[in-house]
């Protein structure tokens, strides 16, 4: 493999890793607050691509108007899922909330099939994202550079929000202890709702970027990316925002380089993520940046 070809694969890996990171952050934020996995997150990501499709194709809105509207609508969808599927079971056993999350996932998938049809649709891709940059013999889409840039901007904003604002302080308090945070005057329900909204907002950003990079959408398109992004969050240390980003890049770059160096294993591309998950759980179950587990006495 020539250095030019390696650089092209590396750029594609960073781009895919950025997509995984954007979606994985949503998983890790919800887990950090509620200590449970939002299994509907991948389907919220899928719904964002359909919102964008209908905004541009059906309603004829320019992409720069449609895409921001999609971000808001998807955030509202995520908050609605929290209100309907999670909040009524806030004090129920964890298994009940888990079942509700899985039910919400199936509901969104089948609702999409009924409303949008099972036939894949072409995602609208503006020309600004399809232009190609040539560096020597390497040809790379501009989108390949846009995706990591968007991921960095979102991560910077999120870290500022969590570490430098009152809302972020409240999030950190709720993640430690709901009852103590409530006694200290934190509106726990509002903070959880905001967390779901932010996570879904980032899923929408990832969904739009995903649709631009892989311009075909379908009702079940969120299943495999959702699982992979959950794995990315676990690899980095679920509950840790920076860890989710690191896990996303490891998974994305690893996948692309695997099929670049070992093209015979292309059919096992998805299996790579699950093998990596098993290895991480065996040797570092808390993830790369996860907190060390201590036994209670």
Largest sheet properties? 2 strands, antiparallel
Proportion of residues in β-strands: under 5%
Question: How many domains make up the 3D coordinates?
Answer: 1
Our Rg estimate from Cα atoms comes to 19 Å
Helicity, as a percent range: over 70%
Overall average residue pLDDT: 88
Strand order of the largest sheet: 1-4
- What fold name goes in the CATH topology slot? ABC transporter involved in vitamin B12 uptake, BtuC
Distance between the termini: 55 Å
Query: In the CATH hierarchy, what is the class?
Result: Mainly Alpha
Spans of at least 5 consecutive residues whose pLDDT stays below 50 are 293-297
Order of helices and strands: HHHHEEEHHHHEHHH
Structural class: mainly alpha
**Count of strand segments:** 4
Number of helix segments?
Answer: 11
What's the CATH architecture name? Answer: Orthogonal Bundle
- Global geometry: globular
Account of the 3D structure:
The protein is mainly alpha-helical. 72% of the residues lie in helices and 4% in strands. The protein has eleven helices and four strands, in the order ααααβββααααβααα. The strands form two sheets. A two-stranded antiparallel ribbon has the order 1-4. A two-stranded antiparallel ribbon has the order 2-3. α2 crosses α8.
